[in-house]
Design a protein that fits this description.
Radius of gyration: 18 Å
Structural class: mainly alpha
Strand content: under 5%
Shape: elongated
Number of helices: 3
Distance between the termini: 59 Å
Order of helices and strands: HHH
Oligomer: single chain
Helix content: 40-55%
Amino acid sequence: MANDMTPEQIKALEPVDSPCVLICAMDRDTDRCFGCGRTRDEIAYWTVKTPEERKAVLAELPARMPELTAKLEERRKRRRTNRRRS
């Protein structure tokens, strides 16, 4: 079967590098993932984006992460506080 495939088809089967870190939770305010910083649309269409489009998104992620990291830490603090009250 692999012999019948074109090089483009074989390349399409290869995994696409993704910034996903398996912390999949979305921030309601920014609609961005706390783990990787991408929006829902960027996540959903990652595999069909061109390499240039993916590079552009990857270039933006470092600037997005500090705010998301701070919000995630605040969420964790609130959860610890709420558990202690229970």
